[in-house]
Structures are given as structure tokens and as C-alpha cells.
Amino acid sequence: MDVLEVLSDAAVPRASSRRLHDALTFAFARGESEERLLELAAPALPPSTFQQESFAKDLFLDELILGCFPIELRGRRYEPSRAYLRGVLVHPPNRASVELRQRVLSELTSSAERTLRLESAYLSLLDLRRALSGGDAIGGRATHLRRRLDILVQLKKAVEDVERLGEGAESALGRAAQFASSLAAGEPYQRLLRLLHFEDSRTVLESRLALGYDGTLRRFEITGVSQAEHSSFPRGRLGRWLRSFIGLLKGYRFSEDDVMSQVLDQLFGDLEPAVIELLGCSVQIEFYLACLGFRRSMQAKGYQVCLPTFADEGASERALEALFNPWLVMQGVSAVPFDDHLADGRSTLILTGPNSGGKTRYLQALAVSQLLGQAGSYVPARAARLVWVEQMFLSLLESANATQEEGRLGMELLRIRHVFETSGPKSLIVMDELCSGTNPSEGEQIFDMVLGLFAELRPQVLISTHFLDFAARLAAEDRPHLYFRQVELGPHDVPTYRFVPGVARTSLARNTATRLGVTRDELLALVEAHKRSGSG
After folding, report:
1. Rg of the Cα atoms in the chain
2. Is there a smaller number of Cβ atoms within 10 Å at the N or the C end of the chain?
3. Which residues contact 376 (CB under 8 A, 6 or more apart)?
4. If 0-12 CB within 10 Å is exposed, 13-18 middle and 19+ buried, where does residue 150 land?
């Protein structure tokens, strides 16, 4: 059977699993947790050079997926398999697979009909997932049989919708039609069609029974189907089934339900590989639906997204137009788009400016653009040209915890060591407030050492700092591969949240203190209020 793979250039082999087989058997018989089924059936992710422990924590990916990647179909919101979607994002594949995903998204956005087919296929696959996870513990024997028949009916519908999704597709979605055609040509699926044809019309099944020495039914096989036109032929679906075998079964110690149960279990077992592929396809389709949801939700708020291009081998130009931070949009804050252009992406860019001027948001926006772009998704920019990287190191949040053995300086030095342990020349390194955990004199020495090593390694580097005098001296030295940007200030030294070349002259700490009510007059007023109230 063909592998149904729509995310990777080369199909990732499906590993056989006894646990998955047992879970599907139980799901067909009584129902199994949908979460467990997807955990076992989800396709393995393609190999990736990214190490998520070097960047995922500081990107708040779970919050990003929840807030910015909705799956909304026909007026209703659906919850994706968040663990798998997160895994796709933090394990960017090779370049060929990224281009494959971009072609799928381009085909979907250029064809409303293709998008509708994608939605229909997903909803059918979702119904199959829910049919397998739904139980009927209260029902009787007939109810259990009816439930299993309903699962097979839903399986057939899912295959048909998957086939329609791939019909005429020029992207990897065409693989869906190939899979469905290959499945339909197989004997197990043909038996499924004969069985459901029997259910839906007045027919006679030709069968082969295998009995044990004790007269119990061991095996049942459908060998043919023919039309019955007798006026007295029973019309009820289950009734027709039972009546067809009533005479045959007399004298043996098994019931009509035994026959039905054997047929359904054997058929589902033979179709189990197809069920696994369809379950895996459902979570892969969620990636595309989530990307379309990201595009739609950002556009609804007035922001443009795009599928990025990547610099050719040997080139290093990075250029993003109208880059914005999606976390701000998610939080209901008006994000100010800005341009990021660097002719030599394999260099070090130092950001300076006041607190709350947007430096950290700049670093976040660029890091998430790189990650989403190399995952094959849209990026938060009107246009984007990125430099391909093989690893990303992100350090925006350095908070103390009760278990750490080192002080702030020690933790900072360990952070620097970790950068060089994990990052090679084809890396993106993003660090907020480098060497802020020690006094300026020592911090500048360490900072200068790190910059010299970056000049040797030549990765892409973005660093923010409040060492303004040190940054100004570096800028005056005109070092190669070292660039400087500062927060742009408008009237009355109010940040515009855009960035211009140069080094900031002041961090505007006084302005920030005034904005937050931390002035001598305001604090003195609080002191006097406590004294008057006698609260000590």
C-alpha cells in the first residue's frame, strides 16, 4: 500500500507497532481515546538539524499555536492535535520538503475549490477519528455491530473525500488521489464495497465459512455478491443481513451476530494499514489548515503574511518587508510593522534603545519568522527573503530559579558556552541583553570576546544591549561584519517601534520611570501616605 505523505519530500517509513495494532483493535471493538490513537498513528517527523531545546522555550510556541493558528471551518472552530503541530514547527525539514509545503499552500490559496476539498477531507477524517474513539458501552450486541458498520461507512467516505482532494492537484496533495486509487484497487477495499453494497440494497452474499471442530465459527469470507429481486426480501438493513443467513446457521452453535462480527473484524483488520495512513494524514492536513488559519486571522486584523524565499547557496542577504510580531497581534496590541534588511545576513547585528522600545519584540519577530519559514509556513511579513540555517539558538528569558547552582554571572557564562556548543556557521543566534548579569567593565570584556568569536564563526547573530558607550566605541571602530541599529524615537523621545541605523545615545530610563510612576515625588507621596495611616 502507498504511504499517504503530504508534508515531506520523501515518505518517512511507517514503523509497525504492536501498541498501535492493539489500540486500533480495541477502538473498533469498543472505542479508544482519540488522543492515544493519534499519538500512536501520527507519522514520524522527517529528520531535522534543529534542536528545539535551544530555542523553543523562549518562543512560547504553545501560546502562538493556540492564538495565531486557528482551524476554523464553516463557522466552527476545531482543536488540532497540538503536540503534532508543535512538532512540525520545531523540526524544520530539508529544503525540498519546505518547498513542497509552500507549493501545497500556494495551490490552496489560489483555488477556493481545492481549499473546500481539503476542508471536506479533514472533516471526514475527523469523523473517522471520532467514530473510532466513541464507545457504546451501554448498547447491546446489535448496537456494537451497528457501531462497527458505521466506522466502516465513515472509512469509505474518508477515502472518497481524500481521493477528491487529490484529483487534479499539482502539488503533493496529488498523492492523496494516488493513495486512494491504490487502496481502491486492493481486495480488502473491494470487500468493503461489497459489504456496504449489501447493506444498502437487496442483495445476496456468496460466502465461505470455516467452522471449528466444535461447530463454532472460525472464519467468514465474502466471495461474491448478486442482486435479489424477490418481493418478500427483507428491507431492514440489519434484518436483511440476519435473514440471509438464517437457514445456513441452523444447527450450529453460533448466532447471526457471530457471523456479522467475524466479517466486520476481519475486514477492519485487513484495512488497518489504510486506517493508520488516514489517521496520519488527518494530523498532516491540520498543518495546512493551521497555516491558512494564521494567514486568514492576520489578514483580518490588517497584517500581511507571505511564503518566504531563501537566499541561494553562498548568498546571505536577509530582507523582510513590514515584519511584525504576531504575539502583539494575539494580545490585541497594535503591532507596528518595520523593515529588516541586511546585505550580509551572516554577520552580527547589535540593537540598542530604551526599555519598552521594541528590541525584544524585534528579536522575537525575526526568530519566529525564521522558524515558521523553514517549517514551510507563512511568516509575519509582507515579503521575506531569508538565509537558510541549520540551527537556531534563542535566549530571551533568563530568570533565576531555586535549583540553579550559579549566580547571574555564572548563568550568563553558561549561556554563552551553550551558544558555541550548539551553533555552527549556518546558525541563527538571537540573544537579549548579553552580559547583563555582571558589572559593565567585566561584561564589556566578555562581550568583546564573544563578538570576536562570532566574527570567526560567521553565523547570523542578533544581540540587544544596554552597554551604549561600549556599542558606540565598537561602531566607531568600523569592524567588518558588525552592524548597529537603534530604536527610532519620535517627538518627545517617544519610541516609534521602528529601527534605524546607529547606536542609541540614552536608554531613556528616566522616561520609563516616569511612565511607570517611579519618580521621587510619586514614591515620596506613597511614603507619606503610609506614615499618615500608621502602617509603618
Report:
1. 31
2. C
3. 7, 92, 93, 97, 98, 99, 100, 101, 102, 105, 291
4. middle
**The model's pTM:** 0.84
Using DSSP bridges, classify how beta strands 338-342 and 318-323 pair: parallel, antiparallel or unpaired: antiparallel
How high is the pLDDT of residue 230? 43
Quote the CA–CA distance of 228 and 205 in Å, as a whole number: 10
HSE-up of 415 (CA within 13 Å, CB side)?
Answer: 28
Which 3 state secondary structure label does DSSP give 194? helix
Instruction: Enter the C-alpha cell of residue 469.
Output: 558607550
Indicate the Cα dihedral angle 233, 235, 231, 207, nearest 10°.
-30
Residue 392 pairs in a beta bridge with: 428
Among 336, 387, 388, residue whose Cα is nearest residue 361: 336
| Cβ atoms of residues 436 and 443 within 8 Å | yes
- How far CA 177 is from CA of 188, 204, 264, 316, in Å, comes to 18, 31, 26, 39
Given a contact cutoff of 8 angstroms between Cβ atoms, the answer to whether 164 and 121 are in contact is yes
Dump pLDDT digits (tens) for 63-101: 999 999 999 998 899 988 999 999 999 999 999 999 999
Report the C-alpha gap between 506 and 69 in whole angstroms: 38
Give pLDDT, residue 247.
46
Residue 365, classed as helix, strand or coil, is: helix
Secondary structure element (H or E) that encloses residue 530, with its range: helix 520-533
In 179-216 the beta strands, taken as DSSP E runs, fall at 203-211
Compute how many other C-beta atoms are within 10 angstroms of the C-beta atom of residue 261: 19
Residue with grid cell 534542536, as numbered in its chain: 51
Cα separation, 278 vs 183, whole angstroms: 11
398 to 280, 367, 409, 433: CA distances (angstroms): 38, 17, 11, 9
List the grid coordinates of 442.
567585566
User: Which among 362, 344, 343, 366 has a CA at the least distance from the CA of 353?
Assistant: 362
Which grid coordinates are listed for 76? 466552527
pLDDT of residue 220: 53
Tell me how far apart the alpha carbons of residues 35 and 126 are, in angstroms, rounded to a whole number. 12
The one-character DSSP state at 312 is P
| The three three-digit cell numbers of residue 71, written as one number | 482551524
State whether the Cα torsion 324-361-455-376 is positive or negative: negative
Look up residue 411 and give its amino acid. M
